[in-house]
Amino acid sequence: xxxxxxxxxxxxxxxxxxxxxxxxxxxxxxxxxxxPVSSTEKRPWxxxxxxxxxxxxxxxxxxxxxxxxxxxxxxALRFTKIGYQVEGFxxxxxxxxxxxxxxxxxxxxxxxxxxxxPAEILPYQDSSFDMIVGVDILHHVDIKKSVTECRRxxxxxxxxxxxxxxxxxxxxAIRNTAIVKFFAPKTKSFELHITDDERKLNSEDIRIVKSIxxxxxxxxxxxxxRFDKFFREGSDPEPSFLERLDYTLMNNVPFLKYLGGxxxxxxxxxx
Length: 271
Ligand SMILES: C[S@@+](CC[C@H](N)C(=O)[O-])C[C@H]1O[C@@H](n2cnc3c(N)ncnc32)[C@H](O)[C@@H]1O
Fold this sequence. Notes:
The chain is of the alpha/beta class. The chain contains 11 helices and 7 strands.
């Protein structure tokens, strides 16, 4: 049953405030890269492309998709190109306003609907969606409450996938030394897109996700590609050499996957 809305927590208020400001820099005239859904090329080594590939592979006519923490709506727009009727929600009113404008600009207003909502209490009825996709969202929210809500609104037989950064203790110990933090700060920044409260998922978070979706499967990405951020733009549409190298390494030396700093969770709700 749909729970009652509650007052925002301090963490939710900070995230909302950050993204209301961050969204104001979104340029509605910038070109959206549709290649992950329009190109015949496949990039299985890229975790973002893998999300779209998965969503395409599970599309059936009339399927509904919830973009879980939809941000400015670019991902949602790509999901409509696959054919999905999309719902999205986000805690930031400004992000929701940008999403609506973006859908109007691309003549897709009838294919997407956006609401302001925290992930921890969703405004949807039980069993509403065939597919739920979340990109870089769980590490901003209360995981137990949000994944429980995800399960509630997913239809029996439906699938949820989330792409998230995760801790790799041995590498994060190096990342968290003072010298590395000096050259690559981790404090709140609009330029680096870091909020006060976001944090990589740890083994306890993964255990919580699995307790809610016991059939959880995990795919791992990004060992050396974590260095891409030092010499590539985040939005660079060209394939990353390091991502491809990681993919080859992880496929050939299976234990290396535990060094992967990005995961995709594949979560199925039984029929
Ligand atoms: C890194 S962005 C990802 C947005 C989008 N999924 C994308 O890939 O562009 C994180 C998003 O989480 C939203 N957010 C943060 N805390 C939230 C919460 N408790 N409930 C819902 N959305 C939240 C932010 O407003 C922001 O849009």
